[in-house]
Write a structure and sequence with these properties.
With about 150 residues, the chain is mainly beta. The protein has strands at about 25-35, 45-50, 65-70, 75-80, 90-95, 105-110, 130-135, 135-140, 145. β5 and β6 form a beta hairpin.
Length: about 150
């Protein structure tokens, strides 16, 4: 689900950290594969999320950005752990699209969140593998798009 906070034309970048804003560092990485397990080069990966307080920037492009996977299908994002807002568990929004293929719009979730059980949109298949890393966290998730290369 795209939700009401998607904003098109995000800047191309792999770092969503806003200097001076509070938040726990989060590195999100993974790969985009086709259904036959081939890496998808040049896939669009577009992220948007709430800030540490659970607010979305609907005027500018804070905590919004897109990138393209490398030849190995890899993506890497530096951001912060998003805050909570009413009715939702902690999550990242993402759109993924292989070149000339249909667009996938989804959300990624954090394990162990108390609101996972009450959020009607939560899907355990979309849980990231999250570990502690220094003062922040590292999350991994691989996307498999519905086509064969």
């Amino acid at each position: 689900m795209e939700g009401p906070y998607f904003k098109p034309n995000s800047p191309q970048r792999t770092d969503l950290v806003v200097p001076g804003h509070p938040g726990t560092a989060l590195v999100v990485s993974g790969y985009v594969f086709s259904r036959d397990c081939r890496p998808v080069s040049g896939a669009l990966v577009d992220f948007w999320q709430a800030d540490d307080a659970g607010n979305y920037d609907n005027v500018g492009y804070n905590y919004r950005g897109h990138q393209f996977t490398g030849t190995d299908g890899a993506f890497h994002l530096d951001t912060i752990i998003p805050g909570l807002y009413p009715g939702r568990t902690r999550h990242l929004h993402v759109k993924v699209q292989a070149p000339n293929r249909p667009l996938l719009t989804t959300q990624l979730y954090f394990p162990g969140e108390p609101r996972n059980g009450t959020d009607m949109l939560y899907d355990p298949r979309l849980l990231m593998n999250v570990t502690d890393e220094g003062a922040g966290r590292r999350a991994e998730f691989d996307f498999v798009l519905n086509f064969t290369a």
